[in-house]
Structures are given as structure tokens and as C-alpha cells.
Design goal:
- There is one protein chain.
- The chain has 146 residues and is mainly α.
- The chain is built from seven helices and three strands.
- The protein has a three-stranded antiparallel beta sheet.
- The chain starts with 9 loop residues before the first helix and ends in a 15-residue tail after the last helix.
């Protein structure tokens, strides 16, 4: 009843990661969704464009329109394909109080009697209010030389 263990070298592990993150070989033009299969971190803001350019040959700023920015489980924004939205966001909408407390982890200690679901709603509302002035703002011009 032993467990089979596959041993890989550091080099093999890094090679696999580069391949799966589409960093070993650039994808064909128009492959933004495929490039974002693992999500493209967007911190600092607009870094997803640089990440996309590293993965897609001849990437253009308009290619980002195929992606949406969502918070990751760690809270950092990342760009993902619209078709993969549920994959990256379902866990961010906890079904009950126990799941909500698992998401906020150590912050639970500071909640006191406040339900975790209420705390998450308050944070979301505060974030929306804070970001409202920037919604629809123009992105900085990014020039990519292929």
C-alpha cells in the first residue's frame, strides 16, 4: 500500500513550470486566453500586459481585452481568460460561514463576533468604492517591440 513517488530534479521542475506557464516558447499571436491558463499576475497594475507580451508573439494591448482581472485567493489581481472565470473565482464566493472563515484564515481572530461573510462583503464594498474613480480609466500606453 505504498505510494509511488516520482522524483524530479530542480532543473526538471523548473522546466515543467516554464512550459506550463507558457514561458519556454512564445505562443502564436492572438493566444491571450491560452497564455493566461495559470493566470497572469497584474501587480503592479498593468503588469499582466507585460506578462502577456512575454508569452505571446506579437502581443498587442488590445489582446488584454480577451482577459478579465480578478482577485486571486491571495488577494493579488490576476488576468484570466473569460472562459476560465469560474475556475479562478468560485472559491472566492464561499457558500457558508465555515468556508468564509477558512478564506480569511488568521484574520478571523480580529473579526470578533462579526460573521466572516459580512466582513468579506464589507471589504468588497470598500474596495468597489475605493476603485470607482478608476473604473473605465484609460490604460497606460504600452509599446511592445516583437
Amino acid at each position: 500500500m505504498g505510494v509511488d513517488v516520482t522524483r524530479v530534479s530542480r532543473r526538471e521542475a523548473l522546466t515543467l513550470r516554464l512550459v506550463r506557464h507558457n514561458l519556454a516558447t512564445r505562443l502564436a499571436p492572438g493566444s491571450a486566453a491560452a497564455a493566461a491558463v495559470v493566470g497572469l499576475q497584474d501587480t503592479p497594475p498593468h503588469a499582466a500586459g507585460i506578462a502577456l507580451a512575454a508569452r505571446v508573439e506579437g502581443a498587442l494591448p488590445a489582446d488584454l481585452d480577451a482577459l478579465v482581472i480578478v482577485p486571486s485567493l491571495r488577494g493579488a489581481p490576476m488576468a484570466v481568460a473569460r472562459a476560465d472565470l469560474a475556475v479562478f473565482t468560485t472559491a472566492l464566493d464561499p457558500p457558508d460561514e465555515q468556508a468564509a472563515r477558512a478564506i480569511v484564515l488568521t484574520a478571523v481572530r480580529t473579526l470578533g463576533e462579526m460573521p466572516a461573510l459580512e466582513a468579506l462583503d464589507r471589504v468588497g464594498a470598500a474596495e468597489a468604492e475605493l476603485l470607482a474613480p478608476w473604473r473605465g480609466a484609460e490604460r497606460a500606453e504600452v509599446v511592445w517591440d516583437g
